[in-house]
Design a protein that fits this description.
Blueprint lengths: L2 H17 L33 E5 L6 H16 L3 E4 L11 H9 L4 E4 L8 H9 L4 E4 L10 E4 L3 H16 L3 E7 L5 H14 L7 E8 L4 H14 L3 E6 L2 H12 L8 E4 L3 H9 L6 E3 L2 H16 L10 E3 L5 E3 L5 E3 L4 E3 L10
Parallel strand pairs: 1-2, 1-3, 3-4, 4-5, 5-13, 6-7, 6-8, 8-9
Antiparallel strand pairs: 10-14, 11-12
Helix pairs in contact: 1-3, 2-10, 3-4, 5-6, 7-8
The structure holds alpha-L-rhamnopyranose.
The site of alpha-L-rhamnopyranose (RAM) has 13 residues, from α8.
Length: 354
């Protein structure tokens, strides 16, 4: 974390603790959250509100993945004539985002876009925002569904989880012990994917694979590096690791690339091509997956702008006009899906630059 960020974080923390009292309004925005704060009916032809101010609140400010996502979101808001900004904590712990939400409410942002570190810890503050007419979009990692109007999901959660098991199974030849190196224990997205991974592993074709441990690197590079090392050293017959976090997979690959496990223990998961390129080229990693993070932010930026302008309310069946991404339908529980993930390997990784 840069010194500027540290100073800013400290400043915000101090300023906002003072403002915390205003966040305890107990109003219930209603199940599904779809119309909270925007009680008027959605008008798809409503003009974009001039001078939109939209804030992007990532899991943590130093995560390179989240920075790409938020730059995509800020670009979308700019396209619409508004101003986007990124603010957020230096760690991805459950309640680290609450004071930031409270500040954004005080600043009267036109919408808050958040990747929730915990589905429930952020819910009261987000509900407070919605009750004051500030729409909430979650992206990447959802909050409790009644604490936001729209969730922009990077891909179908079930498909992300199941495809991770398919990838590791192919790489270890369908048998052996595997472990998962996740982000934080509370992360909604990782936990949802892990549930689907566990379910996928109950299928007969995976009966030779045993999931022996789920470890948590907290989306912290050093901790992830140490957790990867501990997994490999404590489970001598480990065949593979799935790390469904860009921070975890890159730290694990860095450790493995100079260890005796390189090429012997397989590592897959979700990573950015730019962080993983050298580890694919040096034979540490064969294949991994991801979506385009900038497009995720871009879609979330359009969703927030459309909510703030009254074009959508977050109800199932509404259509979102999302600039260069075309149109997306809002699905069940206010979910909008970006698209299927891409699998990267030595054959295609050089075509991608993010
Ligand atoms: C990390 C974060 C993020 C996740 C990606 C794949 O950067 O945990 O939430 O979506 O990995």
């Amino acid at each position: 974390m840069s010194r500027t960020n540290r100073v800013l974080t400290a400043f915000l923390a101090v300023t906002l603790v003072a403002g915390c009292g205003s966040t305890t309004k107990g109003s219930d925005p209603g199940a599904g959250g779809a119309s909270t704060g925007t009680s008027r009916a959605a008008d798809p032809n409503a003009p974009i509100k001039p001078g939109l101010k939209i804030a992007f609140l990532p899991k943590e400010i130093d995560n390179p993945y989240e920075v790409i996502v938020d730059n995509g979101g800020i670009a979308a808001v700019k396209e619409l004539g508004g101003e986007g900004k990124e603010v957020g904590p230096s760690d991805a712990s459950a309640s680290s985002q609450v004071s930031y939400i409270n500040t954004l409410i005080q600043q009267r942002q036109d919408a808050i876009v958040i990747a929730a570190n915990d589905p429930n810890a952020v819910a009261p503050a987000l509900k407070d925002a919605m009750s004051k007419g500030i729409p909430v979009v979650t992206y990447d990692s959802d909050a409790a569904p009644d604490a936001r109007q729209v969730f922009v999901n990077q891909a179908d959660s079930e498909e992300i989880g199941r495809s991770q098991v398919r990838l590791i199974s192919q790489q270890i030849g369908g048998t052996g012990k595997i472990a998962i190196l996740s982000a934080t224990p509370n992360a909604t997205n990782q936990n949802t994917w892990i549930q689907f991974m566990k379910d996928e592993l109950t299928k007969p074709e995976y009966k030779g694979i045993e999931l022996v441990k789920v470890a948590y690197g907290d989306d912290d590079d050093q901790k992830s590096f140490q957790e990867a090392q501990a997994l490999l050293q404590s489970i001598p017959d480990l065949k593979g690791i799935i790390s469904p976090t860009t921070v975890g997979i890159s730290a694990a690959a860095r450790y493995m690339s100079t260890s005796p496990y390189k090429g012997k223990v397989k590592l897959t998961g979700l990573g950015t091509p730019n962080q993983m390129r050298q580890f694919v080229k040096d034979g540490t990693v064969t294949e991994f997956a991801l979506w385009d993070p900038a497009e995720l932010g871009y879609l979330a930026g359009y969703a927030a702008s459309a909510l703030a302008s009254g074009q959508i309310s977050g109800k199932e069946g509404e259509t979102l006009k999302a600039g260069k991404l075309g149109e997306r339908k809002i699905g069940k529980n206010g979910e909008i899906i970006l698209g299927p993930p891409t699998v990267f390997n030595a054959g295609n990784i050089d075509k991608y630059n993010f």
